[in-house]
Design goal:
Elements (H helix, E strand, L loop, with lengths): L1 H22 L53 E6 L13 E7 L4 E6 L5 E7 L1 E7 L7 E7 L3 E4 L4 E6 L5 E7 L7 E2 H6 L7 H8 L3 H8 L3
Helix pairs in contact: 3-4
The structure holds 2-acetamido-2-deoxy-beta-D-glucopyranose.
The site of 2-acetamido-2-deoxy-beta-D-glucopyranose (NAG) has 2 residues, from loops.
């Protein structure tokens, strides 16, 4: 009986370990690092590794996140990414960073990161943030954040930040992928290239086709 229990426990632990491995977003490392070789023609899930003998300290370094992004655009918000495209040493490490600048009433519009959870902290100003759960609930979780507050956007969920303050706002966010990806909802639906048929979007949104076309014209 005792041996049977041990066996069952072992089987349960093994199942847990396996399911954890299968759901890890970026692969585990099999070496100290795998600095991206951006010149390689080899295609893998991620980027191939540079020869470790050619790796230099700059492969793990980026400078410039103290510089405010230019928020002069329709949304009044801009994201400065620091992911594997900027730091090759992030390849396979499952993490990256962004700086987000917001003009007064500036918006980081509803979007998702298909490959990552995000943890954000406000460095300057005041943001209204929110995310929406998946179907069928589509429940909105929203909060007003001030300097020093931290908020989490779970992986894959649609989320946004809006600057409620009269001054500029700045946030820093870490993401659980070297390459989180961004799908901005409005751009994907109304700004697809070539366009999704107006009839299809009109039916999806339950509005007139000319309403859809006037939105599509903004992209
Ligand atoms: C910011 O972007 C706007 C619009 O593209 C441009 O006109 C302006 O010169 C930029 N400002 C700076 C400081 O780069």
């Amino acid at each position: 009986m005792g041996a049977m229990r041990v066996l069952l426990l072992a089987a349960a632990l093994l199942a847990l370990a396996c399911s954890h491995g299968a759901t890890a977003s970026d692969p585990s490392l099999l070496q100290d690092f795998c600095v991206a070789d951006k010149m390689s023609q080899v295609r893998v899930n991620g980027l191939p590794c540079k020869d470790p003998k050619e790796v230099v300290v700059e492969d793990f370094f980026f400078s410039g996140l103290h510089v405010a992004g230019n928020t002069t655009n329709k949304q009044g918000g801009v994201v400065t990414p620091v992911n594997v495209a900027q730091i090759g040493g992030l390849n396979t490490l499952g993490i990256s960073l962004v700086r987000i600048d917001y003009a007064p009433s500036g918006l980081n519009p509803p979007h998702t990161h298909p490959r990552s959870t995000e943890i954000l902290t406000v460095i300057e100003g005041c943001l209204e943030v929110g995310f929406v759960t998946s179907n069928p609930e589509n429940k909105l979780f929203t909060k007003v954040l001030n300097k020093g507050d931290v908020f989490v956007f779970p992986k894959g969920l649609v989320h946004y930040q809006f600057n409620k303050g009269a001054a500029n706002a700045v946030a820093i966010a870490a993401l659980s992928s070297q390459n989180p990806g961004v799908i901005t909802v409005a751009n994907a639906v109304f700004g697809a290239e070539p366009s999704i048929s107006g009839d299809i979007i009109a039916k999806a949104f339950q509005v007139e086709k000319n309403t859809v076309e006037s939105i599509q014209a903004q992209f």
